[in-house]
Every structure is written in structure tokens, then in C-alpha cells.
Design brief:
The protein is α/β, with parallel strands linked by helices. Helix 12 runs antiparallel to helix 13. The structure holds zinc ion.
Length: 493
Amino acid sequence: MGKYTSNTLQIYNTLSGKKEVFNPINKGAIGMYVCGPTVYSNVHLGNVRTFMSFDMIFRYFNHLGYKVRYVRNITDAGHLENDADQGEDRIAKKARLEQIEPMEVVQRYTVDFHNILNTFNFLPPSIEPTATGHIVEQIEIIKSILDKGLAYEANGSIYFDVLKYNESHHYGILSGRNIEDLIHNTRVLDGQSDKKNPQDFALWKKAEPQHIMRWTSPWSDGFPGWHLECTAMSTKYLGENFDIHGGGMDLKFPHHECEIAQAKAWHNHKPVNYWMHANMLTLNGQKMAKSTGNNILPAEILNGNTDKLTKGFSPSVVRFFMMQAHYRSILDFSNDALLASEKGFLKLMEAVTSLSKIEATEVVNDFDVIKWKSNCYAAMNDDFNTPILIAELFSAVKYINQIKDNKASINTSSLAVLTKTMQQFVFDVLGLKNATSNDQNSKLGETVGLLIKMRNDARAQKDFALSDQIRNELIKIGIQLKDGKDGTTFILD
Ligand SMILES: [Zn+2]
């Protein structure tokens, strides 16, 4: 294994709060689990960023020659509206509101999720298990935790006993939360709950009569708690101790803290060696939220059909934009930032495409390609630092453009290394596609771009009848041109 091993890969581990040298449990192989979506609504852009971060990580491991088993689940039951084990099941609620079967909700939004991820050129995970497909495993884990005295039954529901667990283990090991603070800050039980303590969390919930998603168990007809499914599925496919567990920053507590507690209570091993968390996305400097309207759907970015953007952007431009930030940094999404990314992306693609037309000369190089290649790996080996990698790619772009202008030269062997390395990082690792690839959105952009150019030419020749005609005909089919100081853009009505 290992196409390139002269640098050591370091990963920031949430568990230790620092970067650590990555040592997989089995040489040459990696087990990685990432918490997938709860499929009760269209996937939002913040989730796309989280999954894209892990897609990039999965791609880089593949590129390095590791054999990766990447498990990303689908939550199709057990995720309640409220983290305190209260409220309706999110999927059951949607089914009730739309008067369809819960599994119709699951099917609809699983398909939507896959479509969006395909659009953004994600690699599929190795296994995509569902919570409802692993009820038996979850019941077995609950039995074992009950046997160890770390959970209790109350009115047909089973709760994890956090205080009891904390006597012999450390609850808060991942999130850094202190059990005393948790006790102090959690609101007093309202009398509706069967829990002994508010910190306790559900392993199994007895279903109310109206709750349609229910399974038989030794304790009641009910459904598993949300945290438990990830413990069941990760252990089943990756073992009691595996390499990497990832997810969005918001899952660190309580979800991942509870996963650690369940796993240790069950089999007494540290379940995960490296915990990785991807940061969130903001929109125009504010947290994205449906309730405030500060929200944008992935489809709206592609078609530009939103007042937040002046035009649509191709999936690769959006991907490039996201890769320009480190996965652990907050990334702010805005029209200006996307326009800037689009310029950079086109410049990068132009340089990569022109590599095939460059002629090598047997003279001294003006650029140390071997050193540059090593810098690219060093960036990625430093906790997947894609912004630094992209800066390195642009120093190569500058060199390529100098060669094209006859201001620099390159020899045959360096040209081969440069071409291969550029293609590997741009396409295989960052997962970008050339803008001229066969997707409808970029074709539309190119076609309208052509008409904008014809209109500019007409204006330059003072043929205002033609320039007005182009603009008016476009309006008729729902495309509005906008003249700005940086040129003309368009929006779709
Ligand atoms: Zn999870």
C-alpha cells in the first residue's frame, strides 16, 4: 500500500483535542463510519458540506492506496424532534402530515439525498445500512447493557443510566462536558418523563398507541433510541474498535458522547480511535435556518432560482468553493464568495486542460515539480488541509500559464509528473469535474454566456435593435440578464 509514504498523515482527533499521527488498526485498511441523514426532508446545504468533507477524506485514503470500508447510515426511525427523547419521530410526523406511509417518506428523501450527492460527484459509501434494518441488533445491545446494570426499565421504556455509568467510566470524554455541570444545567424533569435523571437517554421507547413505527421487544412494542442505531451498525460492520467515526460538529454532544457510553457499557472497549467533526456552513454570515428564511437548497444554487444568488452555479464550482475552506472551519456561503470561486475554478480547469497541449523542452526547469508534488501531499497529510492544497495547485497554474506564454519551460519527465499529479488531486481527491463535462447546468451557462457575448458585440457596434431583441427573447423564456460592474450575469425566473 501507500503510493506516497514520505509524509506522515496527521488527523485532528476530537477525543484528544489535537492532531495525531494516523495509525490504522489493520495495516493498509481503514474502517470509517459517518452518521448519515435522517430522511424526513430535503437534504440541506450544511449536510452536503459535512458529507462532502468525508467524501474528500474517503477519496484521499483511496488515493493513498488504503482499502477503506466506509459506512454511512440512513436514519429511518428513532430520531425524535427533541434531543431530550421527547416529541414525535421525525419521519412518523412527516408521514402523518402528508398522509402517507413512513416508508414512503423514507423512500422519497433517500432518493433525494442520493440524487443531490450524485450531482455533487460523491463516491458512494461501501455500506449504507438503515436503522430499521438493524432492530434485532439494537435489542441485543440493550439486553447486554441491562445485564451489566447500566440501564433500567421504566414503563416499557429502557433508559441508559448516565450517573451509574459515570461511576466507572467517563461520561463527557468526547465533548469535554462535565457531569456536574450537566446535572446543574439540565432542566428538571416535568413529571412526564420516566427517567430517573434528566441526563439519562433512551435506548428503547415504548410506542404510544398512535405511533405507527413500532417493533416487538421483551419490554414493549416500541422503537429504539436514536443514538443506539449508530452503535449497532458501526460495530456490526467495522468491529468493536474501529479507526474513524465522523459527523457534523452538532453531533458531538449528545449523539456521539452517547455512542461512546453505550459501546463501553456493552463491550468495555474504546469503540473509536479517531473522532472527526466537520464544521458548519453559514449563509451571508448567519446561521442557516428554515425558520428565519436564511436558508438555501442545493437545487437552488444550481438553478439560481433564489433571491440569495444572482445566477446558478455548476456543482463543481460549489464543490470547489467548499474545498477552499478547511473542513474544521466555519464556511460562509454568499453570492460574492461563489462568484470568486467560479473564477478560480475556471482558471484551474483551463490550466489542467491546457497541460495536454504543452510541449516539453529538454532544458532546466524553472519550477521544482518534485518539491511541489511533495508540498501537495504535505498539505493533505496535515489534517486534510484542502485550502493549502489548492494554493499549491495555483502555484502550478501560474507556472503552466508562464510556459504557455513562453516565459518558462519544462522537461519531459517533469511535465509527466505535473500532469499526473494535477489530475489526481483535482479530479480524484477534490472530486471536481471539468466545467465542460456533460451536465445540463453548465451547458445552459455556456449557451447563455454565448448570447451575452453576442449582445455585447451588438452593443459595441451600436446595433441596439439586436441587443434589445436578445435580452427580450431571453426574458420570454424566463432568463433575465443583469448588467453589473463585473459584466453581465443571468438569473432564471
Ligand atoms: Zn450517528
